[in-house]
Specification:
Length: 237
């Protein structure tokens, strides 16, 4: 992977808040920006929960197959909105070392947090992917989708996990991201599509959306079901 990936943004949206109506609207705008991939030999991966509605829109508009990557933030025990690292379905793990040192968690507390996320990953694999085989992405272009990047560690773990499968290139597609998250993932990916990049001391993905709401596991299953994901062993196109 290149250490200097191509970054494709919308300069008109730089450092602006509330630029998307909702995740569907964000997916529509991303699809317009990514028309060069329409019908190409590429594969979409959605990071649940928030990345699923964005990816479903991309899949339908670009006529690309999509599947699910189960990645979890390692949550701070007293702040479930924040995490000090991320863990993937295949065991790939990254810590935000600066934050972890600042939190002062003991080793056994860190291990307890990791075990909690492992259980949630297994639960989500069963709920979301069911018996579907993992697609063969060797030599293919893969596009990883989320609804936004705050710290970037979840996407970093996703890209690192996918890299083990030998794809041709890894592309990140997100509606919004912090400048620090863009910098973090840059060493692991080849291209980044991000319409709304924001700097500053604080960043919240929700601030890019007028209509922001949390998605539960049942919401993800409903969205995938409505998109036809569970109808066959094939993937949405």
């Amino acid at each position: 992977m290149t250490s200097d990936p191509e970054l494709l943004e919308d300069p008109r949206l730089r450092n602006k808040r509330f630029v998307f109506e909702d995740r569907t609207h964000a997916g529509i705008l991303l699809a317009e920006r990514m028309k060069e991939y329409e019908g190409k030999d590429a594969f979409l991966f959605a990071i649940p929960a928030g990345g699923v509605p964005v990816a479903v829109v991309l899949a339908k508009r670009l006529h690309l197959p999509v599947d699910i990557l189960v990645i979890r933030k390692i949550h701070i025990p007293w702040n479930r909105e924040a995490g000090f690292g991320a863990l993937s379905w295949d065991g790939t793990l990254f810590f935000n070392e600066l934050l972890l040192n600042h939190l002062g968690l003991r080793g056994e507390e860190v291990e307890r947090c990791i075990e909690e996320e492992k259980k949630e990953i297994e639960k989500r694999l069963t709920m979301f992917r069911r018996a579907k085989p993992f697609p063969d992405i060797s030599g293919k272009t893969v596009i990883v989708v989320d609804d936004g990047l705050a710290s970037g560690f979840t996407m970093l773990v996703a890209a690192s996990s996918l890299k083990k499968q030998g794809p041709k290139e890894i592309i990140v597609s997100v509606p919004t991201a912090s400048t620090s998250a863009i910098d973090l993932i840059s060493t692991e990916v080849d291209r980044i599509f991000c319409l709304n990049i924001r700097g500053g001391r604080t960043f919240a993905v929700a601030d890019a959306y007028h209509n922001w709401y949390d998605l539960g596991n049942e919401d993800v299953v409903r969205i995938l079901n409505e998109a036809g994901y569970y109808e066959t062993q094939d993937f949405i196109r």
